[in-house]
């Protein structure tokens, strides 16, 4: 392995450990809520602390890496991931979870603002997709792996501070050393603008809204599903469902890359409501195979068809404003990761989990149908020959 490859894998290791901490506590959400005396809505609010951390950093400090360099932001993100884990180890309750999610949101925002650019500088190549694919793979694996590890430790020994927390701290400390030794070749620009407001090119909104639907579904699986599974004594498996709904989407990405963006997004909007229906039915009936199969289908849509298809489409529309257009795309995604999840939690507290899951499913079906129709019409209009 040459030096460039070694450096790129070192950065990928650091990025994986940053995102591994994000959903590390997911299988314990219901336990934290019970210990704190709160319900599904409060759990969803604590879960959304992540978005409150990540969005301001992405928007208000998007140009920070140009001023201070790439490596300091990755090191800061690793430190915040460790601090967030320590907070929930010392105070295993819902308020501490909200604080930890906020810290992890800030850390992920710092890493997201520079990770792809840093990877491209460490592994120079004619094909810009290779660095981006390595960043996507390492972060997607981390997002799901943390929850899966906690589930495995809980199956072996129930605890509010499982061994996965200690494992994350040890691996993140190792990642700090690895990233510290990486070069940082980017030129510093002292007066680079920090603020990068989002831009939405004509025709991009349906693709952005499809990401809102996708991440709302994955957020529901992470934040609300554990309490539904707990009613059937399946809470310890919620980490596996989180891993499935996030990380298994990687399997579908090579296929999606060969598809036209509009076709990929349209297929994702078809798969998502069907997969959610199976997942919600399995959770209500206590059928773990149905939950995992539905989560796998949702993952193919959320982190395969809709993510790559939508990102490819809006990037093609962006022109010279790629960074700001991408910020707008993820703004929709993070709104979906918070507001619909909180609303569903409120419905679950007042009307029961089954009603909340049905209402979310109907809204998802309506949103996917309308968005899919808009994408099909936009694609058909663009494909028409000009008669100017």
Automatic annotation (TrEMBL):
Q: Which residues cross the membrane?
A: 7-26, 38-61, 73-92, 98-120, 141-159, 165-183, 204-228, 234-252, 264-284, 290-313, 325-343, 355-376
| GO CC term (a single one) | plasma membrane
GO MF terms listed in the record are: transmembrane transporter activity
Q: Where is the Major facilitator superfamily (MFS) profile domain?
A: 1-388
Keyword terms, alphabetized? Membrane, Transmembrane, Transmembrane helix
Pfam families cross-referenced by the UniProt entry: MFS_1
Which Gene3D superfamilies does the entry link to? Answer: MFS general substrate transporter like domains
Protein name (Swiss-Prot/TrEMBL)? MFS transporter
């Amino acid at each position: 392995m040459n030096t460039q490859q070694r450096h790129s894998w070192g950065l990928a290791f650091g990025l994986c450990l940053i995102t591994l901490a994000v959903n590390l506590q997911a299988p314990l959400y219901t336990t934290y809520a019970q210990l704190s005396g709160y319900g599904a809505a409060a759990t969803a609010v604590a879960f959304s602390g992540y978005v409150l951390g990540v969005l301001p950093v992405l928007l208000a400090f998007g140009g920070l890496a140009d001023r201070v360099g790439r490596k300091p932001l990755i090191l800061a993100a690793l430190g915040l991931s460790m601090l967030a884990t320590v907070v929930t180890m010392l105070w295993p309750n819902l308020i501490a979870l909200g604080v930890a999610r906020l810290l992890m949101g800030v850390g992920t925002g710092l890493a997201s603002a520079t990770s792809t650019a840093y990877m491209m500088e460490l592994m120079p190549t004619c094909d810009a997709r290779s660095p981006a694919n390595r960043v996507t793979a390492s972060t997607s694996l981390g997002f799901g792996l943390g929850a899966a590890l906690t589930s495995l430790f809980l199956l072996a020994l129930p605890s509010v501070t499982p061994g996965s927390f200690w494992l994350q701290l040890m691996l993140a400390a190792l990642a700090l050393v690895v990233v510290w030794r990486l070069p940082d070749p980017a030129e510093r620009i002292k007066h680079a603008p920090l603020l990068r407001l989002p831009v939405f090119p004509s025709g991009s909104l349906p693709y952005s809204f499809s990401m809102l639907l996708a991440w709302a579904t994955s957020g529901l699986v992470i934040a609300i599903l554990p309490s539904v599974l707990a009613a059937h004594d399946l809470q310890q498996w919620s980490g596996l469902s989180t891993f499935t709904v996030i990380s298994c989407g990687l399997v579908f990405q090579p296929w999606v890359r060969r598809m036209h963006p509009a076709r990929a997004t349209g297929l994702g909007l078809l798969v998502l409501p069907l997969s959610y229906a199976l997942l919600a039915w399995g959770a209500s009936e206590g059928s773990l195979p149905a939950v995992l199969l539905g989560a796998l289908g949702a993952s193919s849509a959320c982190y395969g068809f809709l993510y790559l298809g939508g990102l490819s489409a809006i990037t093609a529309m962006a022109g010279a404003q790629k960074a700001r257009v991408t910020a707008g795309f993820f703004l929709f995604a993070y709104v979906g990761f918070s507001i619909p999840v909180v609303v569903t939690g409120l419905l679950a507290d007042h009307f029961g989990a089954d009603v909340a899951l049905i209402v979310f499913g109907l809204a998802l079906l309506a949103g996917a149908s309308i968005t899919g129709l808009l994408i099909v019409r936009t694609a058909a209009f663009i494909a028409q020959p000009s008669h100017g």
